Amino acid sequence: MEQTYFRKGFGLKDEIEGALTADYHSRVVEAIRDHGYALTVGDLTIRLAREFGFCYGVDRAVEYAYETRTKFPDRRTLLVGEIIHNPHVNSKLRAMGVEFLFRGPDGAFDFGGVTASDVVILPAFGVTVQDFERLRQISCVLVDTTCGSVLNVWKRVESYARDGYTAVIHGKFFHEETKATASQVTKFPRGRYIIVRHMDEAKVLCAFIEGRADRETVLHGFAHATSPGFDPDADLMKVGVANQTTMLSNESLAIAQELGASMGRRWGEAALAEHFRTFDTICSATQDRQDAVLKLIAEPLNVMVVIGGYNSSNTTHLAAICAGAVPTYHIEDAQCIDATSGGIRHLPVGKREEERRDQWLPAGRIIVGITAGASTPNNKIGETVERIVATRGLTLDAILAGS
Questions:
Q1: Which CATH class is domain 24-55+285-401?
Q2: pTM of the model
Q3: What are the pLDDT digits (tens) for 311-323?
Q4: Is 63 one of the annotated active-site residues of the chain?
Q5: Under CATH, to which class is 56-147 assigned?
Q6: Domain 149-282, CATH
């Protein structure tokens, strides 16, 4: 019988290494690293955060997708959603013949055209329990690239549901990872979840727990972010906190602390362990990139550029961290910078639409900080650096020639 579920790779890394290098490697990034993460050209200094770009989970997902096309060159290959939230990586997969499946108007994936002869790739964010079971019933080949850090969160919320605790998930209810995480509780008859986007929403739960808000406030405020049949009176007596792996670490920790304090006031400190659990489930790569950018913006900088998909949660959080300390521009790639006119298209923190700004780089000797989200490949970082340098009428030719 043909094996139809794969999670540990096909052992074809040597065969795809050349393609990965051609598609994602950057001599510019290597040169900056070799120069101690700082590079000066004319009156412009580029400083690169010491942790940036592809994390282990993204690396693995992309490699596994490339291996899949090598392993099954003659079979139709489908991808559930996007492999990661980076438009260039997803475009590369399309060029390799991967077909994308997206949610319909009803919010569900249409697997009606998937057959047993197809190969289906599950993205780094994972898929819901329900979608996984639907695909298993088709008996197609499943290649599972779900990140290990996401799987750790799944185990945590499963343990909450098994032990009768409602999972309070700090995340975005519309994000693919959070949808998949929340669905894990449905494995248990009494599994319940509620998703909080930020501290203000967490405080609504605290107010209800302490009797300062009514059940309708919770039901109305979290109408799209709770498990079916959610009952605040019964389901907020015992809670366990988890989070989408790419959220702001300090906010997740603060939300857990706030909820823990509220449960302590409601039930008493002696009984707190019976009503409240928490574990920090921010992935190490997200934490490392946030820590690295905090160190970078503590140094003198004139401008900060954050590179990555506008729908990438970890990238938008990096931009939010930077924006509090230095003028920050979140761009998808180098094409957002017009080296001729000196303008830039960027997504301001908290906005949903790109804006354009002219003459965004100050005149004179300046320092520009650079970081990138965990789904941004090195070549896109390198292209951005080259475009910034070109804005000054300069090139990296001499530096690259000596690298």
A1: alpha beta
A2: 0.91
A3: 999 999 999 999 9
A4: no
A5: alpha beta
A6: 3.40.1010.20
